[in-house]
Amino acid sequence: MEQLESGRGSLAPAERRRVARHLLLDGFGLAAQERLAASRVVVVGAGGLGSPVLQYLAAAGVGTLGIIDDDVVEASNLQRQVLHSVADVGRAKTASATDALRGLAPEVEVIAHGERLTRDNAAAILGGYHLVVDGSDTYQTRYAVSEAAAALGLPVVWGTVLGWDGQVSVFWSAAPEGRAITYPDVFGPQPPEGESCATVGVLSPACGVVGSTMAVEAVKVLTGTGDPALGRLLAYDARTSAWDTIELAAPPSDPGGVAPAEPMSPAEPTSAAGAPEPAGPLSARAELPGVLLLDVGLHPGAVPGAVFARLEDLAAGKLPPELLDHPLDGPVVVVCERGLRSRGAVQLLRAEGWRDVTSRAILG
Fold first, then answer.
1. What is the 8-class DSSP label of residue 280?
2. 117, 73 contact by CB (below 8 A)
3. CA 212 to mean position of chain CA atoms
4. What DSSP designation does 114 have?
5. What's the start-to-end Cα distance of the chain, in Å?
6. What's the mean pLDDT in 217-230?
């Protein structure tokens, strides 16, 4: 990344007082701070990871922050999305985030992109920035970010967290010294959508740990300080508070050369350990005598004869009467389209005392 110069000249006295601890920092100082002030960073997602990223980048003195998010704040977001408050429920996340950041650092220019980033608009949006921070939670968005950033030559600070596990890396198609690695180089072609926080849960402080680490990587790339995680995947396990470093190798430039290692599964490092595996597809018209069939899918009525419940209601302790009347040792089969939401429901029902609970997918 080209060395950024300050677009404001020397920092104003009031700003220098605010960032005094950076100016005192060995290996950082005024030159690095002026690069931050001149930088333009766009953050994809104002959620669990975007919240700490945006807060720390604004506090650190990044001059311009873009926020890409098309969602609204929901009550269930507040467990981990600390940029928003109870008063923001129902508001656009970009609006809520903008107000919070302006309260934290009024001199930062905030640009709200209240739309979903896609392959069609990614290049147009990202092209106005020096660096992308990707805290999105779908493969569709991650691959759209990667493709556009690679075409534009932009570095991407990427992170993910699911359950107890997190990962951080820096991908940059134009990185020097053999570290020009992109997200698909590591994880392979775009897979179908997999598990999410809505299906397996997430430890809220783990979002802060991973998001703060992403902010650190962004600052290092922008200022040319430290050693960014280019060519490395940082893996975090909140159960032990341990970080592991996985060295990444750039793909061979010669098609006739040695083939790269088998790509990682994008779900592999972020899977929730101990989560019950679905035992295979279930016919939508399956009849299971003596078994309570509980449907937590997205479309009520998809499984004739099943009791329907929203996963969010189960998490809130709002259980359907049929389930409350079912013996705690009686078998319960929880179903959804692909067996993802049903896994989360299994965890919830087991915590409520039902002992014989399994998960099934209704689609093959």
1. S
2. no
3. 12
4. -
5. 45
6. 95
Residues marked active site are found at: 197
Average pLDDT over residues 73-90: 93
Return the DSSP state at 81.
Answer: -
* Cα–Cα distance list, 69 to 48, 85, 117, 137, 358 (Å): 12, 17, 8, 11, 35
- Alpha carbons 280 and 249: distance in angstroms, whole number: 35
Q: Please, how many CA atoms are within 13 Å of residue 238, restricted to the half-sphere of its CB?
A: 20
Q: Which tokens hold the place of 284? A: 């939508």
Q: Which of 300, 315, 277 is nearest to 201 (CA)?
A: 315
pLDDT of residue 32: 93
Maximum pairwise Cα distance, the chain: 76
Cα torsion 221, 227, 230, 234: sign: negative
Distance between CA atoms of residues 362 and 295, nearest Å = 10
Mean predicted lDDT score pLDDT of the chain: 85
Task: Give all domains of the chain, ordered by start, each with its CATH number.
Answer: 13-247 (3.40.50.720), 292-361 (3.40.250.10)
**Nearest to 40, CA basis, from 229, 228, 222, 224:** 222
* Token representation of residue 26: 């060995």
Q: Which residue in 364, 302, 363, 288 sits closest to 332, CA to CA?
A: 288
Read off φ and ψ for residue 46, nearest 5 degrees.
Answer: -110, 45
Query: Distance between CA atoms of 23 and 341, rounded to whole angstroms?
Result: 48
Given a cut of 60, whether residue 81 has pLDDT beyond it is: yes
Length of the chain: 364
* 291 against 197, higher pLDDT: 291
Residues with Cβ within 8 Å of 192's Cβ and at least 6 positions away in sequence, in order, are: 139
Residue 283 has pLDDT above 50, yes or no: no
